[in-house]
Amino acid sequence: MKLNKIELLNFRSYQQQCFDFESGGNLIIGANGSGKTNLLEAIAYTSIGKSIRYHQDQDLVFNTAEHFAINALYETDLSVPKKLHLSYANSRKILKINGEVKRQLSALFSEVKVIYCAPDDIGLINGSPR
Residue-wise over 19-32: b if at least 16 C-beta within 10 A, else e? Predict the structure, then answer.
């Protein structure tokens, strides 16, 4: 599965931003505090429907906004497009997959596979067995 595009509205440091991804790999570079980790968090959010860093979805909302939305366009291994929409407003989440509202976030688990490694996870690679 490949991520082609992600649009962020009022998500963390992004008021409104769209990112297009190329085949073969992409580099995300920028100064400290420019939103690199926030972009990675948004991508992970499309896989598990919750934050990898924060407990409350309200903490993901840009400044004084009251809601956020993430729209992502994935492409399956068979080149079938898959549109995901996740939004949060009024303490409520909405998930749509290809326009169809899903009642449970667990619907994401079979749709999108993301592996997220945080800087603290380097011990899994460099550390010794205990």
Answer: beeeeeeeeeeeee
Q: For the segment 54-101, what is each residue's pLDDT rounded down to a tens digit?
A: 889 999 999 999 999 999 999 988 899 999 999 999 999 999 999 999
CB neighbours of 1 closer than 8 A, spacing ≥ 6?
Answer: 74, 75, 76, 77, 82, 112, 113
Number of domains in the chain: 1
* Residue ranges making up the domain that contains 99: 2-126
Q: What is the pTM of this model?
A: 0.89
Token duo for residue 43:
């991508």
Residue 1's alpha-carbon distances to 23, 24, 73, 79, 99, in angstroms, are 11, 12, 10, 9, 19
Question: Can you give the CATH number for the domain in which 72 is found?
Answer: 3.40.50.300
